[in-house]
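User: I'm preparing a small set of examples for a lab meeting where we compare how different chains pack in three dimensions. I only have the primary sequence for this one, and I'd like the structure in token form so I can line it up with the others. Please keep the answer compact; I'll paste it straight into my notes.
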Amino acid sequence: MKISVVIPVLNEEKYIEQCIQSILNNTVLPMEILICDGGSIDKTKEIAKEFSLVTILDNIDKTAASGRNIGIKHASGNIIAFTDGDCYVDKNWIEQMIVNFTERSIDGLRGKIIPAAPENKYEDFWNDLAWNVLMNFGDKPHTILTKNIRHCLVTANCAYKREVLHNLNGFDAWFGNNAEDTDLSWRAIDKQLYLHYDPSVKVITHGVTTLKGIRKKSFRNGISSSKLQKRHGTKINFDPLIYKLWWVNFIGLFKRTQNSGLNLMQLTWHLFGKYYGSIKAKVVNI
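Assistant: Understood. Below is the structure token output for the 286-residue chain.
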């Protein structure tokens, strides 16, 4: 069984060396590492090309979806694994993938994502929100059967059979950088494919470290919600919980509740993203 690793990047010079080196330090090496660059203007490509097994591919459309599709097109392995340029993988990452695909005959694999030690309070806040609140990574392996945002195959740490990706026509370019991985895993579930979660397949990821980064990520998540609504839901969706949480944190400002300001900002930008995404996707997702 041969594994190709696909990594879409854009200006990842801060972590790309750590990312590639962690893959090359694995107990089993991949047959290739495909770096799909969206036009980096920093030293990402210069750093990446110094490593063995690395091939750099140009991603003219710049988005994560198009980058991964370019990687799929050029991959030679019968299993294609995905991670991101700001992640580093466990030393048994590839070995455990091979075990899962060999012993269980699965079509797709979801691994566990662990946040790196936070650089500051903003990264600590985002790591908790992204990987503990919004996502659900337990310690027990299980089959993924339902289209649930908390159990999707996140491309920071997942893998599919190459033939499955081709049969699903890869990632939907319409999603761009917004939930393209969730859409793919949900389409796989619609086809009744065998998706599995194994917490022993581990990746450590870095988070955003600025207020601007939190706003940008929250806005993008809102857009993702509306795009997923368009593809997988109904034309109208109303989520009362998000408004309840908004008011709880608004009141928390006056009570000086911990992180109420950050929560309020995150929820506000998420709502802005939902509204903007609703217009673009022609749905009502509020």
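A couple of notes for your slides: The longest strand covers residues 195-205. The chain has two domains: 3-205, 211-285.

User: Perfect, thanks.
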